[in-house]
Amino acid sequence: MADVESEMRSIGETARDSGLGVSALRFYDRAGVLVPARVDPVSGYRWYAPEQLEEARLLARLRRAGMPLADVRLVLAGWSGPDTDLVRGLLGAHLRRLERGLTEARGEFSALEALLDRRENPMTASPLTGIVRLSLSASALAGALDAVRFAVATDPELPMLGGVLFDVDGDALRVVATDRYRMAVARVAGAGHGGPREQVLVPAPLVDAMRALLGDDGAADFALEGDRVTLEAGERRVSGERLAHDFPDYRRLVRLPSGRRVVVDVPGFREALEAGPVRVAEAGEPGRAARDVSVLATADDGAVVVCGDGDEDGNDVGVDRGFLLDALAAAGRDRLVLEFGAAPTTPLAIRRVDDEETFSLLMPVRLDD
Predict the structure, then answer these.
(1) Are residues 217 and 326 in the same domain?
(2) Is residue 104 part of a domain?
(3) pLDDT, tens digit, for every residue of 292-321?
(4) How confident is the model over 26-79, as pLDDT tens digits?
(5) Do 236 and 269 fall within a single domain?
(6) Residue 165 forms part of a structural domain
């Protein structure tokens, strides 16, 4: 008996070696799909037999392929049996469902593309004949670019997110970046334009060249002529072509209902995040690596708490820890406001105490699976 117990794997070891998160293993235990071989009656800690590792890896593959839980349960039940007809039938049926779904999705996307081709959206696409001249504080523009640069996408499949949107409205400039999982917005007051609203998507390398140009003093002159974007600071100048893509209408995405606001001391909160417990979340989609997820809750005294296993409840918010640390650094303040939405599925907002118009949003990570 002792030899058998010594071969048992902890839930953490099983998660690490199978590709399933600890929270996912708990979920599958509760669902009766992969029940641990032993549960400690005192601590409630789960232990898995060596042969269950193969089942966990199989389960991870099936879930990555999008197989419904009811079918997963049947595949696991029949996997080690002598008759594999049921398993092959379930796999074949699911593959056919995926192929039908892909065909239907392609049809819907073709229809959407046709609608977009017929639709003119002046709020997200500036005409290439637009002309902008805007004078800005060099240090303020540098701070704004620093506040949003971390959220620029690097996915080559989404070139329309591979830059920073410069949104000039009157004499104000807003810079915006998003990679779908996070969004950052910053505002800079300017002078000299006063004309109609113009938007231009500036590629990330040109944004970086602009930032390198900016110092702590003086003015920076931003210009847009047709598809050419230019920034001058002192006697230095950088210029390049805009990205020929439309950026999403970010204003719709940042209209969130008011939530619970908590002021945090950034150095202390950062230390709590870096030293605190994390969950390992599955990638969720091809090309994304597994992520360390911090689970956040607000205590009775208003403090933000990084929850450990078993401490959380249904109202806590899971966020990518790396993304949150990036957002804290980009905000550039020792005190920030974290705004929690009414539901765990609402984005977490990180706002400056002294500047409501510079903020970032982080999409939450599901905690139940």
Answers:
(1) no
(2) no
(3) 888 998 887 778 888 876 555 656 888 999
(4) 888 888 888 899 998 888 889 999 989 999 999 999 988 988 888 888 888 888
(5) no
(6) yes
User: Which pLDDT tens digit goes with each residue over 269-297?
Assistant: 999 999 988 887 655 554 455 678 889 98
Q: In terms of domains, do 139 and 238 share one?
A: yes
What's the pLDDT score for residue 284? 52
Residue whose C-alpha is closest to residue 76's, from 96, 54, 94: 54
Q: Kindly report the number of other CB atoms within 10 A of residue 16's CB atom.
A: 14
CB 312 within 8 A of CB 295: yes
Judge if 50 and 87 occupy the same domain: yes
pLDDT beyond 70 at 346: yes
**Whether the Cβ atoms of residue 165 and residue 251 lie closer than 8 Å to each other:** no
In a domain, residue 309? The reply is yes
Helix%, strand%, coil% for the chain, nearest 5: 35, 30, 35
My answer on whether 135 and 246 are in the same domain is yes
pTM score, whole prediction: 0.69
Name the CA radius of gyration of the chain, rounded. 25
In terms of domains, do 209 and 304 share one? no
Q: Which of 250, 269, 295 is the last residue of a domain?
A: 250
Quote the CA–CA distance of 190 and 198 in Å, as a whole number: 14
Residue whose C-alpha is closest to residue 325's, from 150, 154, 180: 150
- Which residue reads 């938007």 in tokens? 199
Q: Are 355 and 268 in a shared domain?
A: yes
- Where helices occur in the chain by DSSP H, the ranges are 2-6, 11-18, 22-30, 52-64, 69-79, 85-118, 138-148, 204-213, 250-253, 266-275, 321-331
Separation between Cα atoms, residue 153 and residue 165, nearest integer Å: 12
In a domain, 89, yes or no: yes
Mean pLDDT confidence for 127-136: 73
**Structural domain span for residue 265:** 256-362
Q: Is 226 left (phi over 0), alpha (psi -120 to 50) or beta?
A: left
Domain of 323, CATH number, reads: 3.10.150.10
CB 132 within 8 A of CB 223: yes
* Cα angle for residues 197, 163, 337 (degrees, 5° grid): 80
Domain count, the chain: 3
Nearest to 259 by CA among 293, 296, 292: 296
